[in-house]
């Protein structure tokens, strides 16, 4: 159902091996926030939730409330804006091509 709302895209899930996987996952979640809102209000999704066991239905309700919460998306946006410069510096350090120290110092100053 989600892929239908996002033109075949998946939300990227965090992986254990990447230093920025949590950031990437939240960025992906934020990118598809409107599509997720459309999904949780669709009749197909609501019909599916009605068929779930009570515990699963409670979790689905909590997720629906979270996706509908404007403050939740504001907090994610704030976090992404705050952390992005640090992630960019870490990507420079972790990348295959070795950057000049001057570039790294400049990126760290910008991140501060």
Total number of domains: 1
User: Which assembly state applies to the chains in this document?
Assistant: single chain
Count of alpha/pi helices:
7
Catalogue the unreliable spans.
none
Please state the overall shape, judged from the principal axes of the Cα atoms: elongated
Any idea what the radius of gyration is? 18 Å
> How much strand content do the residues show?
under 5%
Order of helices and strands: HHHHHHH
Number of strands: 0
Helix content: over 70%
Q: Could you say which structural class the secondary elements and strand pairing correspond to?
A: mainly alpha
Mean pLDDT: 84
Question: What does the largest sheet look like?
Answer: none
End-to-end distance, in Å? 41 Å
InterPro entries: RNaseH-like_sf
Describe the 3D structure.
With 112 residues, this protein is mostly helical. The protein has one domain. 73% of the residues lie in helices and 0% in strands. The protein is built from 7 helices and no strands. Helix 2 crosses helix 6 and helix 6 packs antiparallel against helix 7. The longest helix has 25 residues. 3% of the residues are buried. The mean pLDDT is 84.
Please give a quick description of this structure.
This protein has helices at residues 2-5, 21-31, 33-40, 43-50, 54-68, 70-94, 101-111. The chain has 112 residues and is mainly alpha-helical.
Secondary structure layout:
Elements: H1 2-5, H2 21-31, H3 33-40, H4 43-50, H5 54-68, H6 70-94, H7 101-111
Descriptors:
0% strand, RNaseH-like_sf, mainly alpha, 7 helices, 112 residues
